[in-house]
Each structure stands twice: as C-alpha cells, then as structure tokens.
Amino acid sequence: MLVREAMSANVRVVNADTTVQEVAKIMKNEKIGSVIVTKENDEVLGMVTEGTIIREIVAHGKSLETKVREIMITNPHVINPDRTLEEAADLMRRKHVKRLPVVENDAIIGMITTTDLIAYEDKRVEKLAEMFVKDRMEAQKPKGEVEMDDEDY
Q1: Would you give the distance in Å from CA 31 to the centre of its chain?
Q2: Which residues of 52-70 are buried (b: 16+ CB within 10 A; e: fewer)?
Q3: Average pLDDT for residues 11-16, to the nearest whole number?
Q4: SS3 for 76?
Q5: Under 8 Å between Cβ of 5 and 109
Q6: Residue 74 CB-density burial (10 A; 0-12 exposed, 13-18 middle, 19+ buried)
Q7: I want to staple 34 with a disulfide (CB 3.0 to 4.6 A). Which of 49, 56, 70, 130 is the partner?
C-alpha cells in the first residue's frame, strides 16, 4: 500500500509568523499534534509539534507570543506519496519521528503518522482473519454439498 492511500490529507498549515499561542489553540481545537509551517506556495519550511512547544517554550519559559519560525523543526523529514507504507515506517524508525509530512512537487499534500500505520495494519490483520475464517468454513463443509443462492429457495 502506498503512503497516499493511508495519509491524512487534512493537514493544518501555518505561516512562520504565527505565534506559538495561536498554534497551541489550533492544535487543541482541531485535536491534532502538529502543524506544518509553509511558505505561501505550500513549500514546507518546518513543523511544530506538541513536543516542540514543550521543549522550546514551556521548558525555557519563553513567551507564547514567540513566532513559530523561532522554534519550528526546520527541514523535517518528508516522504513522497508514492512510497510504500513499509518505506514510511522504516524512515520513521531510522529518524526517530512519529509523523512525516507528505510532499509532492515541493508542496505539502498530507501527513502520515505512526497511528496511520497502525490503523492500516489493523485493517490488514482483520482482512486476513476474515479470509482464514472463510477458508476454514469452506473446508468444513461436507463434500458434495451444493451451495444454493437465495433465489434457489
């Protein structure tokens, strides 16, 4: 499965002059853990996560009026939407990140997170279980039994 099939396309973007307080409100109201900082053409400049706010603002006693340009993660690791989920998981593991902006033609088009990967795996396991149950039921039918459709009754 490709990243584009599992990513969230609803990514919240802000500009570099947005204050940390504004970003924190966005995260709280939209129940998200990060925002992407972009140029006006949607080119990714950086990313701000809940952890970034804790490490850079709360821990240092900085003002909530600080602009995100001062605390954002610059040059975040990104992934192309045509990469596989396995490649996304490997990149997250190697770089010790929980989320990757999805970028196509230098513009942000989505976000893939560890939660998205887990949800995909859950669906995959569910499908496998359904296949095994169906196969087992087929194997348990007495030989020679003819299956009838509803319209045969």
Answers
A1: 14
A2: bbeebbeeeeeeeebbbee
A3: 95
A4: coil
A5: no
A6: exposed
A7: 49
